[in-house]
Specification:
Elements (H helix, E strand, L loop, with lengths): L11 H10 L9 E4 L19 E9 L4 E10 L5 E4 L4 E7 L2 E2 L5 E4 L6 E10 L11 E3 L2 E4 L6 E2 L3 E10 L3 E4 L3 E7 L2 E12 L4 E4 L1 E9 L2 E8 L3 H22 L6 E6 L1
Parallel strand pairs: 2-12, 18-19
Antiparallel strand pairs: 1-19, 2-3, 3-8, 4-7, 4-11, 5-6, 5-8, 9-10, 10-16, 12-15, 13-16, 14-15, 17-18
Length: 263
């Protein structure tokens, strides 16, 4: 994960939380500051760019088996060549414009005079080894996915993500719009972010979610486990101080959400 100007550096609150939990059964691995992870120039001020591919991801989990099952639907604009990386994924099916193709770790798609439509069914798994959480975690205590956990293009995409998780979980990914619905024991969470990104991160767990406004139409969220809930207000206060400090240096924070996520 690249360090970004919007991400607060480590501080005493992090150390206190670690000291409290390092002897617990499940230690606090890290605290992610999800300022959408991508501080960039707001779209209105940025130079015009070609229309990016659109990438719809739908994912579900078998937590006991540490397994993710997913579908990618990618629309590639006309006159756009892309390479799709399938590294670390087991591909069940790869279709281009309705035709099933054989795949390798990297699939090169030349440009075409029309939009191209790719559909990929895939799965991946992470051994339930908590010593290796930097590579990802899928187990009944929570989910943390970064890096190459989904098909990735060699260019930025506009992403939409739908995730099916246990009803007692809350989830966060890069998004300006998040909605969820409940059906039985499943919570379906939808994330929409219109700014192009190289890929998505995804974290879910039994969080206590709290929020407070930080500007017109902007909200600061904290996602903390119940045993650390009393730390959340202090983290939000400190984050607001950082945001004010960096806004003085680089201008207004350009997104609707800023989320602090215990992982």
């Amino acid at each position: 994960m690249r360090k970004q100007p919007w991400l607060p550096s480590n501080n005493s609150a992090t150390q206190k939380s670690w000291n409290r939990r390092k002897h617990a059964r499940f230690p606090l691995c890290l605290l992610l500051f999800f300022g959408l992870l991508i501080l960039s120039v707001p779209a209105s001020a940025a130079a015009p760019r070609p229309t990016p591919p659109r990438h719809q991801l739908d994912i579900a989990f078998d937590l006991q088996s540490h397994r993710l099952i997913g579908t990618s639907r990618i629309t590639i604009p006309a006159q756009t060549a892309v390479t799709i990386s399938l590294a670390n994924l087991e591909i069940m099916q790869f279709d281009l414009d309705g035709v099933t193709l054989q795949t390798s770790e990297h699939v090169v798609l030349p440009s075409a005079p029309h939009d191209q439509h790719v559909a990929i069914r895939f799965h991946t798994s992470y051994a339930g080894n908590r010593a290796d959480t930097l590579n990802g975690l899928i187990d009944p205590s929570g989910i943390a996915l970064t890096g190459f956990w989904h098909p990735r293009l060699d260019t930025d995409c506009q992403y939409a993500l739908t995730a099916a998780i246990p009803k007692h979980f809350a989830a966060i990914a890069e998004a300006e719009e998040i909605s969820d619905t409940l059906s039985g024991n499943i919570r379906t969470v939808r994330f929409l972010f219109e700014h192009p990104l190289p890929g998505l991160n995804f974290v879910a767990g039994p969080y206590v979610v709290e929020e407070e406004p930080i500007g017109p139409g902007q909200t600061l969220y904290s996602y903390f486990f119940a045993e650390d809930r009393e730390l959340a207000a202090g983290y939000r206060k400190k984050t607001i101080e950082y945001l004010k400090r960096y806004q003085e240096l680089v201008g207004p924070y350009p997104y609707k959400r800023f989320s602090i996520v215990e992982n």
